[in-house]
Amino acid sequence: MRSRPPVGATAIIRSGFYEGLEVPIDRERIVIGRGRKADLVLAEATISRAHAALGFDGEGFFVEDLGSTNGTLVNGARITTHRLKHDDEIQMGKLRIGVTLPG
Fold first, then answer.
1. Does residue 29 belong to any structural domain of this protein?
2. Distance of alpha carbon 14 from the chain centroid
3. What distance separates the 2 farthest-apart alpha carbons in the chain?
4. Segments forming the whole domain that contains residue 14
5. pLDDT at residue 1 above 50?
6. Which of 15, 33, 57, 100 could form a Cys-Cys staple with 51, CB 3.0–4.6 A?
7. What confidence tens digit (pLDDT) does each residue in 13-51 have?
8. Does residue 2 belong to any structural domain of this protein?
9. What CATH number should be reported for the domain holding residue 22?
10. Other C-beta atoms within 10 Å of 4: how many?
11. What global pTM score does this model have?
12. At 4, is the pLDDT very low, low, confident or very high (cuts 50, 70, 90)?
């Protein structure tokens, strides 16, 4: 059984229509995309229906690209899976998302 994520981890959208939206990373996995089945639906043409997932796996927070068309970048580098650190910046299409982690 995995442990629950520590309280206080947040993804903050830094660009586009959703700029300023704060999303708590409070589950093992949160799928971000423009499709209706995503946990966080963002109507942005440059992201895939199920673009990426943010979450916590017991060892730390992560972001994982879900086979998106335009890819997922962290601090400017394309990733498949990446262990997140405080103040990392995720880019999905034209969206930039900042990460705030506790501690």
1. yes
2. 12
3. 37
4. 10-100
5. no
6. 33
7. 999 899 999 999 999 999 999 999 999 999 999 999 999
8. no
9. 2.60.200.20
10. 11
11. 0.92
12. confident
